[in-house]
C-alpha cells in the first residue's frame, strides 16, 4: 500500500516501456503475459481458476473514452443465499502500475454481488474480475480495454475544490422507498481526489504523493453489506453501485479510510 | 504503396535541409488591421498533422508584436516566427499562451530569447508542470516527436485577473478566467478593432472539449457575451466570426449537456447510460463529435454529480 514512490515509478516506467512495444501489435498470448508471468501466482497462487461467465460477468468499454474514468460493471449470475454466495470479487488490471485495483467482500445479506465503479486504465490491458464463492472456488471474467495514461493523467483541474470537499459522501437509492426483503440498488458517492502518486511534476521535480481511499465499509443496521480494499486504480471521486437487502427500516452507513489515515463516515436512514 | 516522385524528392531534400527550414510556410489571414490568424484543421492530433490543429497568430502594435499561441509542434513555432518576421519588422515582445493544451503551447521555445516575455493565466505554469510528463509521453506516441522540458516555457508574467498589454498605440486587455475549458483559460481583447480572441473558450465546427468545468464554462460564456466586440477568434474554427453570434452553437451544445445530464442524475441513471444517450441530437452539427462527445459526457457527469455540494 505504502510503497515508496520510486518503486511505483520504477514499475510504471518498466511497464510503460514494455507496453510501448506491445501495444502496437499484440501477438497472440501477449495480452496474457503479465497475468501468466506473475500476477496470477501473486494473487491466487496455484489455486485453479475457472474462466467463465457463469458466476460473474464483467462489462467494460473496449475502447475507453477517458482512461481516467472507465466505467465497469460486474454482474453476478447467482443469487446470494446462505448456502451459496459470492464472498469476494478481486479486481485486477493487468497492465496498470498497481494491478491490484480492489477486493470487494460480500455476504448473503448483500442480496446480489453486483458492483459498478469507475477505474483508471494506464495501458491496453485485460481487466479481470475474479469471484470467490463460499466453497472456495475461483471464477474469472475478463474484458480487454484499450486505454492509455489513466493513472498518469493529470489530476482533474479543480484539485483545490476537490481537496476542500474531500471526505464528503452521499448515498443514492434507486427507489426512494426501498422494498423490504429484496435486493435494492444503492450508489455510494465519495468525494476524494484519489491521487495516484504517478502524476509527476517533472519541471519542479516534485510529485504529488499517492493519496487514495484504501478501505470502504458499507453496512445496513451494522451488518456488513460491502467491504472493500481499494487502490489507485479507482477513479477520482470513487463511485460504487451495489445492492443491499433491508429487512426493516434502518440505517445505511458508509465508513471509509484513506492511505493517510483520514476517516470519514456518512449514513442515510432507510424508510420503506 | 505508390509514392509520388515529388513527395519522394521533397522528403529527400528534407533529410538534407536543417529541420527548421523544411516546414512549409504558415498560411495566415489578416482578420482585422494588424491581427493575423493561422487556421488549424479539424483533426485529431496525429503523426500526419503533428498536432498542428489550433488557430494561432499574432497582433501587431506600433512598438511590439504579441504572439497568441505558438502552435502544436516545436516546428510550427518556428514557422510562425518566420511568418511574423516576413510580415513585419516590429519586434516580438510578448508570447501569450491562452491555455495549457499542446496544440497551443508546443511552439513556445521558438520565441524564447531576451526581450520576449511569456504571459499566461496564473495557473498555467502549474498546469504545464503537472502535465509535462504525460504530454511528453503522448507526443512521442501520437505525434511522432520528442519534447524536452525546455519546450514547456512557463509564463514569466502570470495574469492574476486582468492585464493591460501596451503594444504601442494598441492596448490588449487580457483576462484570466475561472475554470471553463481548462482551469487556465486566458482571453485577449483588442479594443482598437473590437476583436475578441477567445482561443478555446470558443469552438466552432470542432466539437467543444470539456477539460475544466461544464458549469464553469457556461458561467464564463454568460459573463463574456455582453462584451462590446465585433469579431471573435475561436481556438478551433474559422479565423474569425461575428460576435456574439459565434457563441451560439457552442452554448447550445454545452447547455444541452448540462440539462440532459442533470436529468439523468436526477433520475438515478448511470454515467454509462448518459454516455450512451445524452446529447446525440447534436451529432450532425459538429465535426469530431464521435471522438470527443462521450468523454465530454463522462467528464461533465462526474462534475455534475457533485454540483451543489
Please give a structural write-up.
The complex is a heterodimer of chains A (272) and B (309). Chain A has a single domain (5-270), classed as Immunoglobulin-like. Chain A is built from three helices and 17 strands. Chain A has helices at residues 5-24, 33-44, 159-165; strands at 49-51, 56-59, 70-76, 86-93, 100-106, 115-119, 125-133, 138-145, 169-173, 184-190, 200-201, 206-207, 213-220, 223-230, 239-244, 250-258, 263-270. In chain A, a hairpin with a 4-residue loop joins strand 11 and strand 12. The N and C termini of chain A lie far apart (40 Å). Chain B is of the alpha/beta class. Chain B is built from eight helices and 13 strands. Chain B has helices at residues 5-16, 74-87, 102-105, 124-143, 214-224, 248-266, 271-277, 289-304, and strands spanning 29-32, 35-38, 56-60, 65-68, 92-96, 117-121, 157-159, 162-166, 171-176, 186-190, 195-203, 231-236, 241-242. In chain B, strands 1-2-3-4-5-6-7 form a seven-stranded mixed β-sheet, with no helix packed on it. Chain B has a six-stranded mixed β-sheet with strand order 8-9-10-11-12-13, with no helix packed on it. In chain B, a hairpin with a 4-residue loop joins strand 8 (162-166) and strand 9. The N and C termini of chain B lie far apart (58 Å). Classes of the chains: A mainly beta (272), B alpha/beta (309). The interface between A and B is large, with 37 and 34 residues.
Taken from the alpha-carbon principal axes, the silhouette of chain B is globular
Count helical runs of chain A. 3
Number of domains of chain A: 1
- What string, H for helix and E for strand, traces the elements of chain B in order? HEEEEHEHEHEEEEEHEEHHH
What is the CATH homology-level superfamily of chain B? Ribonuclease Z/Hydroxyacylglutathione hydrolase-like
Helix percentage of chain A: 10-25%
Low-confidence stretches of chain A: 1-25
CATH top level label of chain B: Alpha Beta
**Helix share of residues of chain B?**
25-40%
Strand content of chain B: 15-25%
Number of β-strand runs of chain A: 17
Distance between the first and last residues' Cα of chain A:
40 Å
CATH class of chain A: Mainly Beta
Q: Helix count of chain B?
A: 8
Query: What share of residues are in beta strands of chain A?
Result: 35-45%
Mean pLDDT of chain A: 87
At the fourth CATH level, what is the homologous superfamily of chain A?
Immunoglobulins
Low-confidence stretches of chain B: 1-21
